[in-house]
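Hello Y.,

Per our agreement to keep a running log of every chain we model this quarter, I'm adding this entry. I've kept the format consistent with earlier entries: sequence first, then predicted structure.
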Amino acid sequence: MSVAQVTVILPVFNGELTLARAVKSILHQTYPHWKLLLLDDGSTDATLEIAHSFQDFRTTVISDGLHKGIVERLNQGVELADTPYIARMDADDFSLPERLEQQIHFLENAPQIDLVGTAIHLVGPTGEVIGKRIFSTSHSGIVSKPWLKTISIAHPTWCGRTAWFKKWTYHDFSRNEDQELLLRAAASSTYSNLSTPLLEYTFKNNFYQNFKTRLSWLIVLVKHYLKRGQFIELFLGISVFFVKIFLDFLRKLLH
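Predicted structure for the entry above:
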């Protein structure tokens, strides 16, 4: 029996339609030294039954019947992790087979890197690939101008050192707990991305959901920049927020 090197944290709430595909994408990884924590957040559909259907000894289902939210479940997974590395996964996404192998190999050969993401394929509601996003591979490029483009590491592609995750726990910022963590930790961390798309990300183009996400990110930026007296960046962040909302509204009208 091989010793696990990476804990994959997958929180899920009412994910019966997509969970099986997401879990199978981990089971089919070319890198075998993983363990998967399926953290059910009080699902009321068939999620728990699906989670328990996987018999692989590397998969563990955690469930207390309570709905505590994704931040609580993410921190629970981090606390339970006892491997050198942690990887993130969402219940409606799909990791390509070489994802963990490439990310772990990268981290083993780049000890200065705390967290690495990957490029992603954007997938529509019926599973068709509708685009691709390739992010900067350098820390400076990833963290530059967060008021314009957020911090460029897609959350479900995260793979990093467990010590880093345990130091920088998630805070409760609805829809932006990942970005808030990246912003808070940026000055004391080093990020990178692999330029190869290694995850299929389910793209949800919903005006109202986008508005809530953008507003949440604006709140994160306001608190961050006010605390540091960075008023130019604060002004830019507020301006970009209104421009993006206006463009979202135009797209909604045109479609």
